[in-house]
Structures are given as structure tokens and as C-alpha cells.
Write a structure and sequence with these properties.
With 550 residues, this protein is of the alpha/beta class. The protein is built from 16 helices and 18 strands. The chain folds into two domains: 113 residues, Threonyl-tRNA Synthetase, Chain A, domain 2 (2-Layer Sandwich); 288 residues, P-loop containing nucleotide triphosphate hydrolases (Rossmann fold). The longest helix has 29 residues.
Length: 550
């Protein structure tokens, strides 16, 4: 018998048993530690479920000891208590009970159940190392009209991806609208008392900036389909938060008017008058006390603003020259305040002696683009340019409305810091009003139906994404009653403050026909324009070559 050419033997290593037991024990201990840590993290993350788990354990114990009668008694007591609570405090019952139950139901059944499927089909899943990385759903909070989801984005994503997928997300989860916000929508609360310092430290951690988080707001039902009734008149107007309407999340929309100018853009019969009258209603108490002076110009012959004539300290609707005179007088008032406040403050504080002057122009395009007299048009353009570039900090503000926001029509469009986009006729007009990319971030102003008058998109402080609001509607009878209740006091013109190098000031009629006089600068010399040459070139209406195509 011949020996094999190759001798195959098993490779064996003799290991001592203590080493094997030690390695096995360390491996099992490591897995046990990992399991305990994960369980602790899960328990801390879902701490709201602790009371429910405790109640289940107590219910099981009582069932074993006494049967099901204690459970029936507890249910009857809870039902009776809930009924009394709903009867006596319906608002708090809905906020603390109903909305929380709705939140739990929609988080588990609507969102978590189909989260992986929707994220994959909407293209929000990232591929990495042979696996998938999903956006993580952190929390869900439901209100009467919206579901607010806080999502942590995977690495390699930014909020623009969610802006593009907003409509797909909305229809995937059974709604029609989804708003995407890249920043926290709730501001930290103001703390006071003994625990203010401790709670402030907690809020600093809780509300810290988290760039990887994005807020998705799904609109379950549209609260802006109904007409918003006139809001109550504030006892004293807060110029940093004037209530004008209702937001999509049922919160009150407040406009910051202090130290800014407002441009309202919208097609015919889309609610520009609702914005103006809502603003005047929020200022009504200040108008009556003399804290606010409203100078109104209605180039449409008084078809919009004449019904509230008593609210205006000065009003012109039938003469182009008088409209130019009113704006020149506003510039003169601004110049006088410059002399008084120079070196003292940077922002004017309204008082009865030095009130806030709000110049309201119903259709500014008629003054800047379609006025037949070129000389008067040039005067108006120069006066508006001065007011818009210098008047915000001096308490001389301009609130203007237009149907066409293109720069060739409204040449001073870029000087309005605050803008409101009502229903527009063209897609490109949205970005012209609210800024480049506003429509991609959700401002679908060109899709507002004709029936939704007063619905608009606005930019809120601290948020680059536009918000959808509806301004209150004031019928004619309400406007007449408001004008009769809050009339403007007689205008008392201050003494003119003439600088040594200023032009000669001469009195002239203020255009009200009441015999009082005001002051405005005399016509400037040809070699001394009111505006700098660069600003004049930007506002030149007669220049067409090389102008902005918008």
C-alpha cells in the first residue's frame, strides 16, 4: 500500500479554557451593556409613555385581585370628569386632551406607519455604505388646522430639497399643502420669577440653533377659506405688532410698521383694500389721539379711500399737482425732523407732538408710470425716492399698493423693505415682490383663486420662508363707523426748521381747502437735484435702453 502524495491534516490550535470563557463573558457583557444603554435611551426619549405603562400594570394587578368592576368604576368617573371639564372649560379641554390624542393618533397611524415608504418615493432617502439613511421624525404636534413635524435631515441634505418635495410630501400624507421652514417657528418664552435663571438655561439648550432640523407643516384643513371678520381696535397701537389678519396656523398675523415701508402687490379685486383698511383699523386709536397722522393719496378719484375721509389728516384724490405737493410737504416734514433728531437718536419715537406720519397711496403705478404730466411725475418720483430712502427712521412711512410690481412700472420697488403679495396674475411677479426664490419656497401667489380675496403671502421676522395669511375684510358700514368713531384731529403744522444752507421756504395751501397753511421747499434749481445722480439714474422713468427687463 503506497503512502499518499499529499498528507492532509486539520489545522488545530489548542486554546486554554480560561481564555475562552473570559472572551465569551466579555462579549456577552458588552452586548448586555449595549442593550441596557439602548433601553435607557428609549425610555428617556419616550418618557411620556411612562404613565401609560404604569396605568397598564396597575390595571392588570387590580384585574387579578378584584376583577373588572374597578375598571368600570374608574371609566365612569373619568367620563363624568371629562364631561364636566368639556362643559366648563372647553378650550383647555380641547388643547390638553383632544389635540394630544389627535397628535398620538396621527403620529403613529399617519406618519410613522408609512414614513419609510413616503421618504423613499419622494427621493429623500440617502444611500451610504450599502444601506439607506432616512430623515428622522423627531416629533409631531397637531393643532386645529395643521400638523407640525420636526425632522432631522441626513447628512448631505439641506432644506431646499424639502422645498422642492413639499407638494409630493403633502399629497403622500393625504393633505394638499405642506409648508417647509428651516428655522424654529416658536420663540423661547419670557421667563420671570425665582426659577427664571434655571429655566432660562433650559430654554437656551432647548431652543438652540439646530441647522440639521427642518419643520414640515401639513395643512389638514384650510382655515383661510372663510372671510376674516374685522379685528378689535387696539387701545394703543403697538407699531412693532399691528394685528391685521389670521395666519394659516390660526395665529394672529401682526405687521411691524415701525421704521419700514410697505408695498402691497395684487391683481385687480384681490384684496389690496383689505390690507389698507386693516392697517388703518389697527392704527385707529392712535389716529384719534394724534399719535398717528395718515396722509392719503387716491389716484383712482377716491373710489377706495374717500369712504374713510375722516381718518385722514390730509387727503387728495382729484389733482396731480396737489398730490405732488403733499409728497413735497412730507419731505419737508422729514427734513425738519432731521434737523431736530440729528446726533440724538437713530430711530424716531412717535409722540403726539411728533406723530408717526403714514403716507398711504392706493395705486402708486398711476403716479410713477402713467401720469401724463412729465414734470409732476418727476417731482413725485424724486419725493418718493427721498421718503423711501430716508424717511423710515424719521417716522415718515410710505404704504403703497400696486397691481404691477415690475420695476419699469414701480421704479422705487426695491426701496420697500416690507412687501405683501396678494393674488398675482403671473408667476414671475411673485419673485419680483417677495424676492428671488420666494415661489420655490412656497409663495404660490399666482395660484390664489379669485374667490380668496385678501389671502396673501408675507415674510415673517427671522424666517426666510413666506407665510400664508388672510387679512380681515371691512365692509363699507364698518369703515364709516370707524371713521366716525376715530376721526383725525385737526392738523397743526409745526414751525419750519430752516437750516442755514437750506432753500427759502414759502407757505402755500395744504390742499384740504380749509384755509390752513403748510410749508414746503421752493422748487430746486436745475443744478441742484433733490436726489444723488446714481439714485436719479435708477429712478429715471424715461430711460428704456439698458433698463431692468422686469
Amino acid at each position: 500500500m503506497r503512502a499518499p502524495l499529499v498528507n492532509f491534516r486539520r489545522f488545530q490550535i489548542t486554546a486554554p479554557w480560561p481564555i475562552v470563557w473570559t472572551l465569551t463573558t466579555l462579549f456577552l457583557l458588552s452586548r448586555l451593556v449595549v442593550a441596557v444603554v439602548r433601553l435607557a435611551v428609549f425610555a428617556v426619549r419616550h418618557w411620556r409613555a411612562w404613565p401609560a405603562v404604569a396605568l397598564v400594570l396597575v390595571a392588570v394587578d387590580f384585574y387579578r385581585s378584584h376583577g373588572w368592576w374597578p375598571h368600570l368604576l374608574v371609566l365612569l368617573v373619568l367620563a363624568a370628569g371629562a364631561g364636566v371639564w368639556w362643559w366648563r372649560g372647553r378650550e383647555s379641554f380641547h388643547r390638553l386632551v383632544v389635540l394630544r390624542l389627535v397628535t398620538v393618533w396621527r403620529r403613529l397611524w399617519v406618519y410613522r406607519r408609512q414614513w419609510h415608504e413616503v421618504m423613499s418615493l419622494c427621493g429623500l432617502v440617502k444611500k451610504y455604505d450599502g444601506g439607506e439613511v432616512l430623515p428622522r421624525l423627531l416629533s409631531v404636534r397637531c393643532s386645529y388646522a395643521t400638523d407640525e413635524l420636526v425632522v432631522r435631515m441626513p447628512k448631505g441634505q439641506n432644506p431646499e430639497v424639502y422645498h422642492k418635495a413639499a407638494r409630493d410630501l403633502a399629497y403622500s400624507f393625504g393633505t394638499r399643502h405642506c409648508r417647509v421652514f428651516s428655522g424654529r417657528r416658536q420663540a423661547p418664552p419670557a421667563r420671570s420669577g425665582r426659577l427664571a435663571v434655571l429655566l432660562g438655561l433650559v430654554d437656551r439648550v432647548r431652543f438652540r440653533d439646530r441647522p440639521r432640523q427642518v419643520w414640515l407643516v401639513f395643512i389638514r384643513r384650510d382655515p383661510l377659506t372663510r372671510i376674516v371678520a374685522p379685528l378689535p381696535v387696539p387701545v394703543r397701537p403697538d407699531f412693532t405688532a399691528l394685528p391685521l389678519g389670521v395666519r394659516e396656523d390660526l395665529a394672529t398675523y401682526c405687521l411691524r410698521l415701525l421704521a419700514t415701508h410697505v408695498l402691497i402687490g395684487g391683481a385687480t379685486r384681490m384684496g389690496k383694500g383689505s390690507v389698507i383698511w386693516s392697517l388703518l383699523r389697527s392704527l385707529a386709536a392712535g389716529i384719534r389721539s394724534g399719535l398717528v397722522r395718515v396722509w392719503a393719496i387716491d389716484p383712482k378719484g377716491g373710489m377706495e379711500l374717500s369712504i374713510g375721509r375722516a381718518l385722514f389728516s390730509r387727503y387728495v384724490d382729484d389733482d396731480w399737482a396737489r398730490m405732488a405737493d403733499l409728497l413735497d410737504d412730507a419731505v419737508a416734514r422729514m427734513r425738519a425732523r432731521q434737523q431736530q433728531l440729528r446726533g440724538k437718536v437713530r430711530v424716531h419715537t412717535p409722540t403726539v407732538d411728533e406723530p408717526l406720519i403714514v403716507v398711504v397711496i392706493d395705486e402708486i403705478a398711476a403716479l410713477l408710470a402713467f401720469l401724463p404730466d412729465s414734470d409732476i411725475r418727476q417731482r413725485i418720483t424724486q419725493a418718493l425716492g427721498l421718503l423711501l430712502t430716508q424717511g423710515a427712521g424719521l417716522g415718515v412711512l410710505v404704504v403703497a399698493a400696486t397691481q404691477d410690481p415690475r420695476k419699469e412700472v414701480v421704479s422705487v420697488r426695491d426701496f420697500f423693505p416690507t412687501r405683501i403679495a396678494l393674488g398675482l396674475t403671473e408667476r414671475a411677479h411673485v419673485d419680483l415682490l417677495l424676492g428671488d426664490g420666494a415661489r420655490d419656497r412656497g409663495a404660490l401667489a399666482d395660484q390664489i383663486p379669485q374667490s380668496a380675496k385678501g389671502v396673501a403671502y408675507v415674510l415673517l421676522d427671522g424666517q426666510p420662508e413666506p407665510a400664508r395669511v388672510r387679512f380681515s375684510y371691512l365692509p363699507d358700514d364698518v369703515i364709516r363707523e370707524m371713521a366716525a368713531t376715530f376721526p383725525a384731529p385737526p392738523e397743526v403744522q409745526p414751525e419750519p426748521v430752516v437750516a442755514p444752507a437750506s432753500p427759502v421756504v414759502k407757505p402755500r395751501s395744504n390742499g384740504n381747502g380749509n384755509g390752513r397753511h403748510t410749508y414746503r421747499p421752493s422748487a430746486p434749481k436745475q443744478d441742484a437735484p433733490l436726489l444723488p445722480p446714481s439714485l436719479l439714474n435708477a429712478l429715471d422713468l424715461n430711460t428704456t435702453n439698458g433698463s431692468d427687463p422686469r
